[in-house]
């Protein structure tokens, strides 16, 4: 992602992709590290969307749906895939891929650029995770090419049709809908039942008292049996 941002600052065009064979300082949300051994897919794609900055977080859902389509293309059963709010992809309840968005705001209402870092466990997975190799023998290059194809197509859908088609696709495979969830934010946590995501991609949580709360960011922990 650092290299993609350097290229973006130098004027690289939208669609530029940086791929690493291995990472020694992979990062995830909230400063978490991302284990990055050889054999897995690590890419960052540069976007320059002409949309309002406040909508750019929706790209996480674009990436998640693209990852789901990629996994199916590469032999993972669609029924096993779950999309976990806001930016993880699971197979049989285990993490197989993650997404990290970083953005530089422009002078107006649109971003200067947005980078989407995607990591996919292709050959190996850390403890508690899973990899494509558990389901098929799809080679790394095939996974990458499928991902970039699906990502480009869905990015076009988002730009031309808005978030609704992406939201619909995401909800079809949403992980934990109707199940108890704990949302942890900066200084508090909220517990309830995951109902859906709203038209901006925020999580809608129904609290025990019956009222609905909108969660725009934070770490969520699903208690799915």
Q: Could you explain the architecture of this structure?
A:
- The chain has 4 helices and 11 strands, in the order αββαββββααβββββ.
- It is of the alpha+beta class.
- The protein folds into 2 domains: 2-172, Bira Bifunctional Protein, Domain 2 (BirA Bifunctional Protein, domain 2, 2-Layer Sandwich), CATH 3.30.930; 180-222, Roll (SH3 type barrels).
- The protein has a 6-stranded antiparallel beta sheet with strand order 1-2-6-5-4-3, sandwiched between helices.
**CATH topology descriptor of the largest domain:** BirA Bifunctional Protein, domain 2
Adjacency order of strands in the biggest sheet: 1-2-6-5-4-3
The major pleated sheet works out as: 6 strands, antiparallel
* Low-pLDDT ranges: none
Q: Strand-residue fraction? A: 25-35%
Distance between the termini: 36 Å
Global mean pLDDT: 91
Shape summary = globular
Helix content: 10-25%
Please give the number of β-strands.
11
Let me know the CATH homologous superfamily of the largest domain: Bira Bifunctional Protein, Domain 2
- Give Rg in angstroms: 17 Å
| Overall CATH architecture of the largest domain | 2-Layer Sandwich
- The number of helical runs is 4
Structural class of the helices, strands and pairings? alpha+beta
CATH class of the largest domain: Alpha Beta
**Number of structural domains:** 2
Q: What is the H/E order?
A: HEEHEEEEHHEEEEE
